[in-house]
Design brief:
A hairpin with a 6-residue loop joins β11 and β12 (540-541). With 753 residues, the chain is of the alpha+beta class. The strands form 7 sheets. Strands 3, 6, 7, 8, 9, 10, 13, 14 and 15 form a 9-stranded mixed sheet that branches. Residues 1-6 and 749-753 have low confidence and may be disordered. It contains 23 helices and 23 strands.
Length: 753
């Protein structure tokens, strides 16, 4: 074959690919686009910003279409090459297209079995008549079936390619090998724009491949294989550049969103749903009555990492204003990570979708390997979710990938912990024996409860076929209680998600032991909040109320280094503790002086004890109410304000973050919060309403569901009410108007408190 032969990648293939991509992109956009997110219609919300965000929508469309185009260029070029080596160059367009549709359909089936939750809206809201097909796939197949068929197809292509190389050893075959390696490299790295540029050059100048010497092809192949190895080599090289701080234990704060205390060692069918955590508990101090300060993710983490209450640092909900979020990490609210940096530590944050809070404030991490959250990212996600043939590649459910659109990392229905475990392992390789800390935050337990295959089958009813088979759709306006079968299924999903997180945790512990890190590490296992699962009138979710034990009571286990001489005969503590205790505990362990006062207490002095010597009270408050509709009990007990779609603003200057910036709304939200103090025996809840302040007092041990209000006749009522007021006045500089607590405004707060 001479240099004047027909190119391996004729323009005809480009034209077929373009038409194919445009057709399916528009097809899915028209028939699989919805303005409903988890049952909530956001059409009006999008209309508000259609003009202002036209550029965002346009760039999103270009981005998603470009990924689709690159993937189709790759598939069509590989199929065309196969036919070319089989001496069939003029293959009809429909035959080539049929192969691409077959491959993408198999990949889609693989993805639907692996992550059926991602396709929940399609099958349960848009086209419920197709749901039996999804049931069939998840009931009677496994991802392995489709992996085998797809692997067989790829193996066939690779066999044909190597046959060509073996028998001919010409420039054409070596050029094809280079092409496959380049596509694989682009696919695994997600650099689709480089891929499109590569194809543009290929279609323009590809016919000149004969001018490259065979030895040059050998060098190119060698370089490509080297590039494949670069990520692992780079981790080793980077580890050499870090300053070595020997003798300082690595610190791991491992948390799962919504993990309830009562799920630890909970048994179903005779087996614990947390076997790995149960083993870890034997090496740890276990704090059995531990509580979060606020059952919403952003403020809960802000409290834990600063050691201060949300009412002090002012990040009190998921949508803080620029002025509020900038307080995190300031001199008045230094974080654990910032204090550890003072003694030579590097800090990392790793997490899935709920970890999007970490890039949104200055928590002091040197590197954040977690998704972000803003209106632009939501737009990319909604656009990409409509493209069914694209989703398997965006989520990397089959044959690597998953790096094309970083925005997909924050997809709430993608409950696969494997990808963040890989990031954790890369940190371990990079850091070696350095002084470092990792905050690992898993979201698999957060609603909509989306454990990947096979976990979503673990504790659910295989004979249940309804809209909660794979996930619990969230609609904050809906106060209807599911029937008994549905409630059991939802709780089964939650337990399956807990089991999936336990497997993640088991992998983390195994990696630490394998690296020889475990024995001398500080490992803290906890959660940002719990979850109500239709106990009594409590509904499902978190942050809306403080009744019961489910929403604030979370696990806390701390393993200290073996060399720290902190081993005590008794490692179980039953006194009440708070998430703000973690900060002073670590400061005391490392001998880091703190000039400020903190509401929490170090737990080091009570190690080996079973309870406090004096009565202790801990504080908690509700989050923001997302909706002002529904017949929930807390909707009848609150000062009303508009729903989140009316409260929020999208701030382009803050990377299109969703914020509540109106000071009147912010002060109303703070004023309206329910608050509580509790000790080991009783809980008092403060509930401001338009008609006056209500108080509820419950016996935690005799009445864990908080059904019988003991206020005001119980002897503890006055004492706990006084303690609540003193706590809020001290840490919020609040004032009293009758029985109402009046929060101090942001402008009145002294930054040097």
């Amino acid at each position: 074959m001479g240099p004047n032969q027909a190119p391996l990648f004729p323009i005809r293939i480009l034209k077929i690919t373009l038409w194919f991509t445009v057709f399916f992109y528009l097809f899915f956009l028209i028939f699989n686009t919805s303005f409903t997110i988890m049952g909530v219609d956001v059409g009006d919300f999008l209309k508000q910003y259609l003009g202002a965000f036209f550029g965002v929508y346009l760039s999103t469309t270009v981005k998603v279409f470009s990924v689709f185009l690159f993937l189709h260029l790759s598939l069509f070029s590989l199929i065309h090459l196969t036919y070319h080596f089989l001496k069939r160059s003029d293959v009809p367009w429909y035959e080539l297209s049929a192969w691409v549709i077959l491959i993408e359909s198999l990949a889609l089936c693989h993805s639907m079995v692996s992550f059926p939750q991602i396709y929940g809206e399609f099958f349960f809201f848009r086209y419920p008549s197709f749901a039996p097909f999804l049931y069939f796939l998840t009931d009677h197949t496994s991802p392995g079936y489709f992996s085998f068929v797809l692997g067989f197809l790829i193996f066939g292509f690779v066999l044909i390619l190597f046959r060509q190389i073996y028998f001919h050893k010409n420039k054409e075959s070596f050029f094809s090998l280079v092409h496959v390696l380049v596509l694989g490299l682009i696919h695994t790295s997600g650099q689709y724009m480089i891929g499109i540029l590569y194809f543009a050059i290929l279609f323009w100048q590809g016919k000149h491949y004969q001018r490259i010497h065979v030895k040059s092809y050998g060098l190119i192949v060698f370089l490509l294989f080297f590039i494949y190895l670069v990520p692992g080599l780079w981790n080793q090289i980077e580890a050499l550049t870090h300053s070595k701080e020997k003798g300082k234990p690595p610190v791991f704060i491992i948390a799962a969103d919504s993990l309830r205390y009562d799920k630890i060692a909970h048994k179903l069918n005779g087996q614990s749903i947390t076997p790995n955590i149960d083993l870890f508990a034997k090496d740890s101090y276990v704090f059995h009555d531990h509580h979060t300060t606020i059952p919403r993710t952003f403020p809960s983490w802000a409290d834990l990492l600063t050691g201060k209450y949300a009412m002090s640092h002012k990040v009190r909900d998921m949508f803080p204003s620029p002025e509020e979020k900038q307080r995190i990490g300031s001199s008045a609210f230094l974080t654990i990570q910032q204090r550890l940096k003072e003694i030579g530590y590097r800090s990392y944050a790793i997490g899935s979708f709920a970890a999007d809070i970490f890039p949104r404030a200055n928590f002091g991490f040197d590197e954040v390997l977690a998704p972000n959250f803003n209106a632009r990212i939501m737009t990319v996600q909604r656009t990409a979710e409509s493209q069914l043939f694209l989703l398997p590649f965006l989520t990397g459910s089959w044959f690597s990938g998953g790096m094309y659109l970083e925005e997909m990392d924050g997809l709430s229905t993608w409950g696969d912990g494997r990808r963040i475990i890989d990031r954790f392992r890369s940190i371990l390789k990079r850091e070696g024996d350095d002084a470092f800390s990792v905050t690992y935050f898993s979201s698999v337990i957060h609603f909509p409860y989306t454990p990947a295959y096979p976990y979503y089958k673990t504790f659910t009813n295989p004979n249940y076929y309804g809209k909660y088979k794979y996930l619990k759709f969230v609609d904050p306006t809906n106060s209807t209680v599911p029937n008994e079968e549905e409630t059991k299924q939802i709780r089964g999903l939650f337990d399956s998600a807990v089991y999936a997180f336990d497997a993640e945790f088991g992998d983390i512990i195994s990696d630490l032991k394998e690296k020889g890190i475990y024995d001398e590490a500080i490992i803290i296992l906890t959660a940002d909040h719990g979850e109500a699962l239709y106990e009594d009138v409590h509904g499902q979710g978190h942050g809306e109320h403080l009744r019961g034990e489910a929403v604030t009571r979370v696990p806390l286990m701390i393993k200290f280094p073996n060399s720290a001489s902190l081993k005590k005969p008794n490692h179980e503590f039953f006194g009440i503790t708070s998430s703000v205790d973690i900060y002073p505990t670590l400061m005391e362990f490392f001998g880091i002086s703190t000039k400020q006062n903190y509401p929490g207490q170090s737990l080091l002095p009570i190690l080996g004890n079973t309870n406090w010597t004096e009565d202790r009270l801990v504080y908690a408050e509700t989050g923001i109410w997302f909706s002002d509709a529904g017949d929930h009990f807390f909707q009848k007990q609150r000062i009303p304000y508009p729903n989140i779609l009316s409260l929020h603003q999208v701030i382009p200057e803050e990377d299109y973050q969703i914020m509540i910036t109106d000071p009147i709304y912010r002060e109303t939200i703070a004023f309206s919060k329910h608050r509580s103090v509790q000790n080991s025996d009783f809980k008092l809840i403060y509930i401001p309403t338009r008609q006056g302040v209500l108080f509820e007092l419950y016996d935690r041990k005799k009445d864990p569901l908080n059904q019988k209000n003991l206020y005001p006749n119980h002897p503890m009522a006055a004492k706990m009410k006084d303690a609540l007021y003193k706590t809020v006045i001290q840490w919020e500089e609040a004032t009293l108007a009758g029985e109402y607590l009046i929060p101090s405004s942001l402008t009145e707060i002294n930054e040097n408190e």
